Amino acid sequence: MRHLPMRVPRVTGRRALGAITAGLLAAGGLGVSAQAAPAAARTPAPAQAPAASDHERLALTPPMGFNNWNSTHCRDEFDESMVKGIADLFVERGLKDAGYEYVNLDDCWALPERDADGLLVPDPERFPNGIKAVADYVHSKGLKFGIYTSAGTKTCSSIGFPGALGHEYSDARQFADWGVDYLKYDNCNNQGVDAKQRYTTMRDALAATGRPIVYSICEWGQNKPWEWAGDLGQLWRTTGDISDSWSSMSSIMKANLALAPYARPGGWNDPDMLEVGNGGMTDTEYRTHFSMWSIMAAPLLIGTDLRTAPESAFEILTNDEVIAVDQDPLGKQGEVVSSRDGRWVVSKEMADGSRAVALFNESSRAQRIETTTKAVGLPKARGYTMRDLWKHSDTNTTGTIAATVPAHGTVLLRVEADRKWAQHPPALDVAADGGAVTEAGRTERITSEVTDLGGTAAHSVRVALTGPEGWRITPRSATSARALKPGGTLATDWDVTVPAGTSAGDRDLTLTVEHRARSGTWLTSTAPVTVRVGVPLPAGESALSDADPLSASNGWGPVERDRSVGESGAGDGGPITIGGATFSKGLGVHAPSSVEYYLGGACTTVTARAGVDDESGDRGSVVFEVWADGTRAASTGTVTHADAARALSADVSGADVVRLVVTDAGDGMDYDHADWADLRVTCA
Ligand code: GLA
């Protein structure tokens, strides 16, 4: 969430939420390993969910719909015509058919003051015909309507619209009279009243209306709602607010993954609304967002203004095979099967006995991710059908599930032990030893391997490796095989020459494999191969902020050179200032952050004066870490807004890459503006 005054007309200075972001990008998120219990092995299919209560029946599958918050916050475009426009598009663009049902209003729909009778008053500028008229319109389209308020004296916007604390029964009555079908009940300005008590009172008030209303408990995971909120509502937020950035989305995802045992039909973990289409992530990242929300059986509330959203957002949001994973009637949340070096395997048991399997690559380079049908909980069988839910195609495997997944990407599969497996072409595991760090002008040897994972042969296999313009790529061994038997491999050596003058950064080559199906048609699969190009640093001591990084990621806005982070565009921060001292050189970042530089084994020390930027005010706490290849070479421990800049010195002798990591110190990323002031490197 924002930590500085927002630059929007209606809202300034949003308060912090004290978000809980448990699954931090600890140690850069990578290199951490966790081994969770495999999803229950050998469960006979089909499985059935237990009988539901009336309360649970309100959301037997995770609610799907729209909420304006992520795209508009309190800006003027949030009004009656937007809400009607979304309802229209739900019908016209097939979203209603895909299962999206609720059209929900978030904060800022009301006037700041109640009327003389203590009733809520819709903002006449935004909703000139009142709320009932909008609800009626939404209903006329065969959709349902939702609204928002807070379990406090005021809502979360700093303007402070009326909250329902002490007005629960009359507010609930008003909502029911307007035809509200869904209430999101927030947590701001709660006056310290016990959460369970506040959320129970509104549950009772909703029940007293006699109208079935889905009850969305939004207390940001502060009081472990997964342990008690299922008795009150149908979904509960598990974390602080999502933002439209990779680090926000992925850290929330990781926190929510840990809560799998608590999800069930009628009661869902809510990792917050979707950002798909809002522009702050790539389509690969948005597909990961949507895949992972679906395998986590998360509520799917579209958070983009569909009237202006790009076509790619519609393609992602209406992928019905992915939605079917989310909406599976068994109602299980996918469990982490394994997680190591940013390679995540998550498996979700489905009602028909199949497993949805996500191979999620958290790292910033293409990586091969492997698991087995046994590890994801499938029964023993001779063969399995493996359906790729983004490519919409089937292959067969005898037990290995593997794919090379692009940086920040997810391969989402549905795997089942069925009799028809042998009718599908064999799955080909296409991989290469990418991730090498090299320099412009150098030639690297890369070996690719194409392995038949299926129980049937692959015929007329041929492989090609292509790169960006100007790259010379020459095969040094066979690039084709007449046939690959089950388990057989075609290995090919390639010489890859990076053109002179190539700037620092990761580049993806593409490995393309073709083989002929029994029907005679050619099948093509591709895999990315990441090559990291570094530029040597100058000899002697220099400022790292003058060099181009290999990679950079940030919690809010871009990483800034010689300035602090301003949270949105490049260059929007201020001078780097810690404890009243200003520094002309350094990096301004926002936790969670990771910035990598190429050292090429030629450097000895990295030094900095690290601290929380003064612009964070009296908030913000972070940890700075320096990693030399895979080893942590220095750490500050927790540094807060109250601390002066802390001197940091790391021995990076012999390392190829240095990684500068800032974590949120375990208390959420709010206000975590972190400065690597006076960041210097010494090289030979
Ligand atoms: C809180 C919630 C958000 C949104 C805003 C509105 O931050 O967590 O989802 O509803 O309030 O002010």
From TrEMBL:
Looking at the record, the residues that make up the Glycosyl hydrolase family 98 putative carbohydrate-binding module domain are 538-683
Q: Does the keyword section mention Cytoplasm?
A: no
Q: Which reaction does it catalyse?
A: Hydrolysis of terminal, non-reducing alpha-D-galactose residues in alpha-D-galactosides, including galactose oligosaccharides, galactomannans and galactolipids
Database matches in Gene3D superfamilies: Aldolase class I, Golgi alpha-mannosidase II, Immunoglobulins, NPCBM/NEW2 domain
InterPro entries with a match to the protein in the record: A-galactase_NEW3, Aldolase_TIM, Galactose-bd-like_sf, GH, Glyco_hyd_98_carb-bd, Glyco_hydro_27, Glyco_hydro_27/36_CS, Glyco_hydro_b
Q: Which SMART domains match?
A: NPCBM
Biased composition of type Low complexity is found at: 542-553
> Biological process (GO) annotations?
carbohydrate catabolic process
EC numbers: 3.2.1.22
Presence of keyword Disulfide bond: yes
Sample GO molecular function, one term:
alpha-galactosidase activity
Residue ranges of region Disordered?
A: 540-574
Matching CDD domains, A to Z? GH27 (cd14792)
Span of the signal peptide: 1-36
- Which keywords fit this entry according to its UniProt record? Disulfide bond, Glycosidase, Hydrolase, Signal
The record's comment on protein family reads: Belongs to the glycosyl hydrolase 27 family.
Q: What name is this protein filed under?
A: Alpha-galactosidase
Task: Give the source species.
Answer: Streptomyces coelicoflavus
The beginning of the lineage is:
Bacteria, Bacillati, Actinomycetota, Actinomycetes, Kitasatosporales
